[in-house]
Amino acid sequence: MRRSNRLPLGLALGGCIWLGPMTAGHGQTAIETDGLVSTDAQVAVAPSARDDAIEARLERIMAATEWYADVDVRVREGIVFLAGSANAVAHKQWAQDLAAKTEGVVAVVNKIAVTGGPSWDYKPAAEAFAQLARNLMSSLPLILLALVLLPVFWILTLFLRRGIRWALASRFESEMLLPLVAHLLSVPIFLVGVYALLQIAGLTSLAVSVLGGAGVFSLILGFAFRDIAENFLSGIILSIRQPFKRGDLISVADYTGIVSSLNARSTILVSLDGNHIIIPNATVFKNTIVNFSSAPLRRDALDVGIGYEDSAAEAQAVIAAVLSGHEAVANDPAPMVLVHALGASTVNLRTYFWYDGNVYSNLKLKSALYRLIKRALTNAGISMPDEAREVVFPNGVPIVQVERAPRRPAPDRDPQPPLAPPLDPLHAPSHSVEPALSQTDAEGGLATEEIEAEAQAEVGDLPEESVDMLDDVAPPERTRSPGDAPG
Question: pTM higher than 0.70, yes or no?
């Protein structure tokens, strides 16, 4: 009797499940709380479907899916109790939704356990590769066409690069700057060609992805090699602005030397001691550059102290005459001899003079001028005392008397000559005569020592030897003054 009643109820239940989406849209919403899912439908006093019919129908549907094991469905007063195991959370949720949408169900208690581990299903991956292979085969003719046209674009880019170098050869004389500009102007043309080829091959999305990935990769490389990029860009700016040339004597970042070369990473100086100084281009670009060779005339100073009893005006005239008569001292601007300070025992005079720094050495020239000024002041009778010193004897000056042996009286026939007064070393006549030479062999002439430094730099190995970005111009001419000793 019970079996005969289940068939029409099962058919009615199947029809209700088929119309489930329609009835769910009319206000039956499932609400889950701690495994209990209830619907917002009103509970009928006389249910239209019996509990055993709902139970049988749900068991058959869940068994047909083959997703569940040990399925156990119990229905009591319209409340469905689901038990068993499923391989995935989605299958558990599907059973819960199925029971909630069944007519006559007022609540669902879902106790299905998910026992399946991670799903190692390679079928989606295999389908994706198969689809990729089909797309590749369909795009193969266009890809072959793109591969044929790619060398054509590359050859056009090379010709364009050569044309840019020829057109800009008169504007850029640097051996490194001109190829760099030609590359920067020709690369966009090549990239446009590559993008057009990818568009023909139907790989536009790939092109966009490649460009986006290249941008991110470039950003990462920019942070990783920031110092290298900074030095490279600074070298390019220095080669364009040319604050110095090869052979100039400059001072930058507390280093002084002759510019030897400027490469992509650093500026190389040769110190006056003959050593190579490698300074990063970013340091050169950020610091103050003093170019001593930009103007030929340089000013220097020397100090001389005379006694207080001597005439400062006369000493000024004597020193000015010495400087005016020296061949290495420029007369325009004329030398200046000024009273600089009143010292403890001397009146200090400071002399300012100009000279050609590309020809004469300031060290050698100052040595010659000091020597000639000392001779002129001595001949003029002007003293140059040393600094006053005070010696203090807190216990007085001890006096020790030395006993002398008795002198034997000399015979009358051999009288002793009178003793000469002792010589005062401070006022003793000087037998040395200062020669009036503008330069001496000991001073090694007056030529600038930059000549020797450049010669040593040419003999030695240049560190970080690479393409020089400085204009290939001759260094400032440095000649020896007449009479200089050969170097």
Answer: no
